[in-house]
Design a protein that fits this description.
Strand content: 15-25%
CATH architecture of the largest domain: Alpha-Beta Complex
CATH topology of the largest domain: Creatine Amidinohydrolase
Order of helices and strands: EHEHEEHEHEHEHHHEEEHHEEEEHHEE
Number of domains: 2
Length: 461
């Protein structure tokens, strides 16, 4: 592979969608039908899906409804309409969901001190939904654990379920049905969902692009974050933007501190289905850095970009997660780079669904998976970090053909991004790889010169 270099690059305008694509209502009953097949295969009598504001993706995926302010819980049996337990404020909203659900007002899900006088006891509701002695119940919370008995749902719900089924029944973690990194329902996306996620990625990546173009010393962090142009779509994580000493922590929200020349800087913008992140120094060139780290591009950014480029080049349907991990470990395994999280993970309504990318993983990547190129060096030194986080999808030939036919404008953007990556950055992608970002692998290390970015392409000047 060629050596990465910092060059002036004309980043084209890839275009922006005028309106967002909508998921058809029929997609939700189809998802529930697929889940019911898996429930039957596991031998469950009922599946319980718990949701709160922070962890609503599983419920939203199945029903098109996500709770606001409150918690909610879906009870899914083998045939009848699902039942939804909601509090005072979400009762009406749940009734407008695109999938038909029988509603139970369960007021313990309501905010503190709100009325509790119009709902039945939880045990009675669950009993009427078919959960009783000897029942086998799967519970979908947020995460999977080493043992199926570990369930990250409020204890009073799990206790009630275990009391209802008794010693002859079982209550176990079934979250893997939806988020297993190899075949979970939510890690294999339909065509329509991919189009929605490409739209989301346009919003976040264009926001980061505006920020890079408009960043100036003297503006406060809060002034800088306005450049992202958040349009009100649900966030998948808090808006993150920090400069100076706080930037090392990465996850913090913007404050009132003015951004200074020479600062470290990091920003991340995530909405449902997309996240983009960039990091670097608020300078024009290496001469503005402290003398000991003026080799920042050579020491950190160049090797990082070369690793990410090889990672991109290896992506395809059928590739193993272990092979992708090996690339990053081989290139950035030196403790200096501080890589300790999975080098890439699956993306959905939540910023991190799961990851098949780990040492020795034999999980094969599948058509319909959406990934975030999330390879984060945490050097812990004055070199700080660098970062390219962009979203992409994998699609086999039939899915690509369907995408091109169904969403031609989005398809044109994807093809333009692929050409840019190959011709200007020297990153040649397998046909299966669909880049969703309007900053596709574009990495300017010196943020006051966003026109100068890393490349492997020959013939650049």
């Amino acid at each position: 592979m060629p050596t990465a270099r910092l060059e002036r690059i004309d980043l084209p305008e890839f275009g922006m969608p005028d309106v967002g694509p909508e998921l058809p209502d029929a997609i939700y009953p189809a998802r529930i039908a697929r889940l019911r097949q898996r429930i039957g295969g596991r031998g469950y009598d009922r599946l319980v899906v718990y949701s709160d504001r922070e962890h609503s993706a599983n419920l939203a995926y199945l029903t098109g409804f996500d709770p606001r302010f409150e918690e909610a819980m879906l009870v899914l049996g083998p045939s009848e309409d699902p039942a939804i337990l909601v509090g005072n404020e979400c009762y009406g909203m749940a009734g407008t969901a695109p999938v038909r659900m029988r509603r139970h007002r369960f007021q313990d899900f309501s905010l503190p001190s709100q009325p509790r006088d119009r709902s039945r006891p939880l045990a009675e509701i669950l009993g009427d939904e078919g959960i009783g002695r000897g029942s086998r119940v799967g519970v979908v919370g947020w995460k999977t654990y080493a043992g199926a008995e570990r369930i990250d749902v409020p204890a009073y719900i799990v206790d009630e379920l275990r009391g209802l089924v008794g010693p002859a029944g079982s209550v176990e973690n079934a979250t893997g049905l939806l988020i297993d990194p190899g075949d979970g329902l939510r890690v294999i996306n339909e065509l329509e969902q991919l189009a929605v996620f490409e739209y989301a990625a346009c919003q976040t990546s264009q926001g980061i692009r505006r920020l890079l173009a408009g960043l100036r010393p003297g503006m406060t962090e809060r002034e800088a974050v306005r450049l992202l142009g958040w349009n009100g779509m649900p966030l998948s994580c808090h808006l993150m933007l920090t400069a100076g000493p706080r930037a090392t922590l990465g996850l913090l929200s913007p404050g009132d501190r003015p951004i200074e020349r020479g600062d470290r800087f990091t920003v991340a913008f995530g909405i449902w289905g997309a996240l983009n992140c960039r990091a670097g120094f608020v300078v024009e060139d290496a001469a503005e850095l402290p003398e000991p780290i003026r080799d920042y591009v050579h020491r950190l950014v160049g090797p990082y970009f070369e690793a990410v480029a090889e990672w991109y080049g290896a992506l395809r349907v059928g590739q193993t997660g272990g092979a992708l991990h090996e690339i990053v470990d081989r290139r950035l395994g030196d403790p200096f780079f501080g890589i300790f999280l999975n080098p890439g993970h699956q993306l959905h309504l939540d910023e991190w669904v799961n990851s098949p990318i780990s040492a020795g993983s034999t999980i094969e990547l599948r058509s319909g998976m959406v990934f975030q190129a999330d390879i984060i060096p945490a050097s812990g030194t004055d070199y700080f970090t660098t970062n390219i986080e962009d979203g992409l999808a994998l699609a086999d030939r039939p899915l690509r053909d369907a995408f091109a036919a169904g969403y031609p404008a989005a398809w044109d953007r994807i093809q333009a991004r692929r050409r840019f990556m190959a011709e200007e950055l020297g990153i040649v992608l397998h046909p299966d790889v669909l880049p969703f970002s309007n900053l596709p692998a574009y990495l300017p290390p010196f943020l006051l010169r966003p026109d100068r970015a890393m490349t492997l392409a020959s013939g650049k000047s």
